[in-house]
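Worked example 4.2. Below are the chains of a multi-component assembly; read each line carefully before continuing.
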Amino acid sequence: MRQSQLFTKTLKEVPSDEEAKNAILLIRAGYIHKEMAGVYQLLPLGLRVVEKIKQIVREEMNAIGTQEMIATNLQRKELWERTGRWSDQVVDVWFKSTLKTGAEVGFAWSHEEPLADMMKNHISSYKDLPVYIYQFQNKLRNELRAKSGMMRGREFIMKDAYSFCRSEEDHTAYYEACKEAYLRSFERMGVGEDTYVTFADGGAFTQYSHEFQTVCDAGEDLCYINREKKIAINEEVFSAEACKELGVIPEEMEKVKTAEVGNIFNFGRQKAEDVGLFYDEENGDKTAVWMGSYGIGITRMMGVLVEKFADEKGIVWPESVSPYKVHLVGLQTDDAQIRDWVDGIYTAFQRRGVEVLYDDRYLRPGQKFADADLLGVPYRIVASKKTKEEGRFEVVHRASGDVQYLSEEELYTTFAGT
Amino acid sequence: MRQSQLFTKTLKEVPSDEEAKNAILLIRAGYIHKEMAGVYQLLPLGLRVVEKIKQIVREEMNAIGTQEMIATNLQRKELWERTGRWSDQVVDVWFKSTLKTGAEVGFAWSHEEPLADMMKNHISSYKDLPVYIYQFQNKLRNELRAKSGMMRGREFIMKDAYSFCRSEEDHTAYYEACKEAYLRSFERMGVGEDTYVTFADGGAFTQYSHEFQTVCDAGEDLCYINREKKIAINEEVFSAEACKELGVIPEEMEKVKTAEVGNIFNFGRQKAEDVGLFYDEENGDKTAVWMGSYGIGITRMMGVLVEKFADEKGIVWPESVSPYKVHLVGLQTDDAQIRDWVDGIYTAFQRRGVEVLYDDRYLRPGQKFADADLLGVPYRIVASKKTKEEGRFEVVHRASGDVQYLSEEELYTTFAGT
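Applying the procedure described above to all two chains together yields the following structure tokens:
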């Protein structure tokens, strides 16, 4: 992509009510636009990051046999009344509206009830089980406070998966597979080391549920972690007893701020009973399906990655989610000869399938470097008159600041990865 | 994909209130699930079709320099008040709700106002123009009647593009490019011949707007078309005068039912004036941006394609949007030898990158063939004991019913396309 063509500009000013570092940097760099608190448009660069995060999660979900679909935003009141969750006293984040026919409808803050209900069409016998589905979908939650940028949205993209099993044993097998898929996903996004499977309040169905918490100063949660043993306990359920159960002692647990990037719920057979999702057992018994749900906050993850890796100069993307792999910065490109030469390098990168952002704008070098730092693409490559004369390119690694000098041929072999 | 693993089942029964052929077939075949009238979940097969339609449109929009983004569903009241379109008397398809803070919010039935407003951050000088953006986004419209299945949704996916230009001349150039991109898209989806650039009511800004209407018995519009001259006029504006302007005579126009699959609006400078989107001209004058908007109904297109091509046996997909290219139907696979052999063919297709749906279920051949017809994948390949012995595969073209017999090697060369 030629930066001169990219419609987004880096901005000096952000909306005065924006407090969160992640949103401030993402707005300034032109990744997102603030529509209102907790509601952000994804601009071209932002969409690329979100699609990369989605693709990582998609690959890991597909690998464990989960099938992708997309549910609707509009939901029926009756489904949620049946489980006692239509009331605003029970679920306090509903957005609701009214059809022209007069019927009330809800907007998706969760898809548990509609998707469990839908499965009545496709699950009738033990032979139809297990079923695993997932989606990337817009969730709408009427949050009273939405001050954490992309980390707590009124509108946000979530990956939610649902498992439908015959037995606790089958459920546990998928549950474990999904836990591993999540850990692989977080590892690929560069936060593997700092992300913990965390014991948390299990709600109505089980004593504990599992959250995936990433150590992050901007996080809204508090956890007690043990880095060595890779164990974490949410403050909500932290106790001597919980520690004992997990084989740690309270004194070796460190209290840290964390962001919840994923969670797993085990509903047992309760949810299916409430919704009326039964199947015929081999012996003819009508039995409720064993259900679980599995979430990853996709746009929240984008916010967490900014918070964790940004420095005073701007965003620092992990390579796996960066909108581009290299940022080619052309200097002295008002000289037609230089311009043609840098254009050629840009084209050569593209031909080799390297995702490259090409700063072909007529601006001062200082401004281009500042923009490159703000945007946070992993490798900045300068191509100037001097580069052309000397035949070696300065390559700066955004995260470490390490500088390499490479020949044109080395550039391609290094970044084309072939 | 192994059909035994696909969680969706073909269904005999559809919701009793479903009247539209497209929805009935898509529900029966397991492409979609009806949540409520005009609101359908996209199941795995349906999502694949939608993604194929999106990809065709994406490629054509990218090719004319349009940049992809995604706007939010939640919208601010103030933006629409400014243009006089917040009122339910003016726009009668609003879904609205209330934030916890008490402020009213709207759900996206259109993105014209929010995206024009957003551009104030990125357009300030004539040097920033032109800008072309697009998105695939969920639109929510509170339709009183939603009886046409995927062809008129309360919730549906639309591709909407917006152009921001300096002059009418620049605007017209993009407008023409977009018109061509649309025609290429419809051509690629198999409805090129039956899709007309149609003169229609231009609303407040211009005498005529352009609609893209596809001849379709289930369509909700009426147009007068001339197949030879490839000219169409919406009934709304059909008159002797309109005919004269387009160089046809009323007598040579045929009245047909059509479905509106796309539209183009020219706002001139009015929209930007209303929203307050101005730029500095070279001479310093503050000037309103020239705007256009360009829509294609993505999920509607899915409905139209079903309506147009389905026969009494089921759906017939154009190859470009079919969820899979070939449907491999294994027979006598309860014989382990046969099963292993058909599995091998499935694997060979996959290795060659052919999108293949593999019916590996233990069912009667008749039921498998009926399902294959219902699902509508372009090529059905039978692999049975007889096939193995004779070394030739029966390949049936779903649309024409033509039968070919191919050797295993020919199968791969024919369908791998390499």
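Take a moment to check your reading of the output against the notes. Chain A touches chain B through 55 residues (CB under 8 Å). Chain A has twelve helices and 21 strands.
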